[in-house]
Amino acid sequence: MSFADKVVVVTGGASGIGEATAKLLAERGAKVVIGDVVEAAGERVVAEISAAGGTASFLRTDVAQAADTVALVDHAVATYGGLHLAANIAGIGHPPARMHELDEAWWDRIHDIDLKGMWLSMRAEIAYFLAHGGGAIVNMASGAGQRATLGQPAYAAAKAGVISLTGQAALEYARDNIRVNAVAPGLIETPAVAALDEQTRAMYAAQMPIGRMGQPREIATTVAWLLSDDASFVTGITHNTDGGFTQKS
Ligand SMILES: NC(=O)c1ccc[n+]([C@@H]2O[C@H](COP(=O)([O-])OP(=O)(O)OC[C@H]3O[C@@H](n4cnc5c(N)ncnc54)[C@H](O)[C@@H]3O)[C@@H](O)[C@H]2O)c1
């Protein structure tokens, strides 16, 4: 699966699933533009991609800021001459809380980044794609957006919104040569999860039917497939890459 001559923006590309996606797409020939709020980590990923022979650039981007999402698309076009693909992966969780205990500020922050940020990112990308012959988008959802999840009311609601927005965009722009899909991971061993204590990690891993947590690269490969021409007839889906978690009763 080659991405030679493709330019892709990866939001949240400075860590975890976004980092793995940026690296995989670069390995396969894409010119990668990373948008993230953490500058040092973003520049580290760019340096690692360059050292491995790939092509990448970083722009500090807060996906909750409309101007930043437009600037990220502009940066891709100015740096590499166009934009063909987008992986919208930036997202955060909140400290575990039951619904009646959740702080309102956390609700707002999660929805600003995980849901509004997804819309703002898509809005900027789709505007460019419409004027330049089309493109493909993958949004990072979560299994939490598909089934009730204890302790994550705002996050789960925002991710359900991501799944809805993905379907709406797919329908709206299907005749414009723009495909829009989502990926719903199970529990993935990213820096945030790796920071948990051993006992908690073991408990989470035991909940996965496949018997372990997923690795970021196992999500990146699904993102790459959905962005590629191999998925040319796929639009509007939310693909579960979750070690069987959705089948768990
Ligand atoms: N790790 C999991 O188990 C898991 C499961 C399901 C879904 N997800 C989703 O996958 C995505 C990546 O998660 P991860 O586990 O790799 O997390 P991570 O914390 O390792 O990476 C998230 C990245 O997003 C960036 N980011 C945060 N807020 C931002 C903003 N406002 N603008 C731009 N960038 C921002 C962070 O700086 C970080 O680099 C998230 O959307 C998350 O909800 C993760």
From TrEMBL:
<dbReference type="InterPro" id="IPR020904">
    <property type="entry name" value="Sc_DH/Rdtase_CS"/>
</dbReference>
<keyword id="KW-0560">Oxidoreductase</keyword>
<protein>
    <recommendedName>
        <fullName>Short-chain dehydrogenase</fullName>
    </recommendedName>
</protein>
<comment type="similarity">
    <text>Belongs to the short-chain dehydrogenases/reductases (SDR) family.</text>
</comment>
<dbReference type="Pfam" id="PF13561">
    <property type="entry name" value="adh_short_C2"/>
</dbReference>
<dbReference type="InterPro" id="IPR036291">
    <property type="entry name" value="NAD(P)-bd_dom_sf"/>
</dbReference>
<dbReference type="InterPro" id="IPR002347">
    <property type="entry name" value="SDR_fam"/>
</dbReference>
<dbReference type="GO" id="GO:0016491">
    <property type="term" value="F:oxidoreductase activity"/>
</dbReference>
